[in-house]
Amino acid sequence: MELVRWTKTDPVEERCDFIITDGTPCRNKAEPGVARCPMHGANVQLQAIEQKGLRMYRLAKHQSRINDLTDHSKLKSLREEIAILRLILEEKFNSCDDTYSLLLQSGPLSDLIMKIEKVVASCHRLESSLGGLLDKTRIKQIANEMMNSVATHCSAHLPPETASLLLESIATDMLASLERKDV
Q1: For a Cys-Cys bond, which of 14, 16, 111, 125 suits 26, CB 3.0-4.6 Å?
Q2: E strand or H helix at 98, and its extent?
Q3: How far is CA 47 from CA 28, 57, 137, 156, in A?
Q4: What is the domain partition of the chain in residue ranges?
Q5: Which tens digits make up the pLDDT trace of 48-105?
Q6: CA 21 to chain CA centroid, nearest Å
Q7: 100-138: buried (b, 16+ CB within 10 Å) or exposed (e) per residue?
Q8: Angle between the 160-179 and 136-157 helix axes, to the nearest 10 degrees?
């Protein structure tokens, strides 16, 4: 960068806007694209413009990938992230050979457990808001609708005693399944 003095015929926009301590304006021309001359910080302004351009380039470069990811239907769930965090936790825990190494890893392990808890809570909230979770009442309602459908078909094709036994057996199995703790 070279210092060039401005003349009275140069436009004001081309002049350095720095004011010297005695109150007079700098007599140098500003660098193209910035408001200062090299002596008064044009390099800093040019670096800031370059950094902003680099950020804009990175955003534009990744914008289509960002759009792909935000529109992807599987991204409405955090289950994969939970699985990855649990795998990391398992590997970190398995790497502990003795009590001493487990104590050394207790901080990172507890941090990972807290992260898993947060992602699980977020996943639950997300699935609840999207209607992806079934509560026990809804499951019973679905089971009742299925039983009515089976009853309709059974009564049309089976003798009444056989249909009654079949429906009772199916209902017992469904209720037992609903009563288990893992549902």
Answers
A1: 16
A2: none
A3: 20, 15, 62, 82
A4: 12-67, 75-129, 136-179
A5: 888 988 888 887 877 777 666 656 666 556 777 888 888 889 999 999 889 999 999 9
A6: 52
A7: eeeeeeeeeeeebeeebeebbeebeeeeeeeeeeeeeee
A8: 160
